Amino acid sequence: MVSAAFLVFSCSETKTESKKMESAPIKKGVVYQPSELAQTMRNMYVNMELVNSYLDSNQVVPDSLLVGYESMLTDTPTNPEEIGPKFHGFAKGWLSELETFRNEQTVANYNSLMNACVHCHESFCPGPIKKIKRLKLVGN
Ligand code: HEC
How far apart are CA 138 and CA 50, in angstroms? Predict the structure, then answer.
């Protein structure tokens, strides 16, 4: 069952989230529909896990894992009222870190890309920060 194995992330801290889950009636067969932005983020997370393992085994990271994330600038988010110039500043900063890593695939550049994920999340979506930090690599 794919759905059972799928990791569920959330911007809120785990405790608040589980409370919410308890009080919300769960309709059978109705699956939580993530926003476009949440979908892009999940995709980024999964792809960065792959990037991590390529890098960790000293292999060249395929370009397909490093393109297509510009949509974060225009994706519909869960909370549109939170998304403004500050978000776009972080997003552009992240995309330029991504370019740096694409051009020079070093552990240092990869880790600063992960730090750029965390920086945006500190302002907008603290829930997954611990998980994102685990994507970082120890230098080799
Ligand atoms: C420019 C800001 C920004 C950057 C950079 C960013 N994120 Fe996010 N992330 C968000 C916001 C905002 C959300 C909430 C999206 C929503 O619910 O619509 C989110 C949501 C997520 C989620 C939860 C998705 C879900 O299922 O609800 C994960 C996981 C995630 N991001 C991982 C990452 C990773 C990994 C990176 C870097 C590779 C990253 N993010 C970079 C702002 C950012």
Answer: 16
CB atoms within 10 A of CB 65: 16
**8 A C-beta contact, residue 61 and residue 109:** no
Q: 40, 90, 125: which to mutate for ligand 1, most atoms within 8 A of CB?
A: 125
Ligand 1 touching residue 98 (CB < 6 A): no
The first and second tokens of residue 108, run together, are 């240092």
CA distance 11 to 35: 12
Show the tokens assigned to 116.
């750029």
Q: DSSP H helical segments within 24-84, as ranges?
A: 36-56
Read off the pLDDT of each residue in 97-120 and give the average, rounded to a whole number: 98
pTM, two decimal places: 0.86
For 35-61, how does the pLDDT look when each residue is reduced to its tens digit (9 = 90+)? Answer: 999 999 999 999 999 999 999 999 999
Mean pLDDT of the chain: 87
Segments making up each domain of the chain, as ranges: 35-133
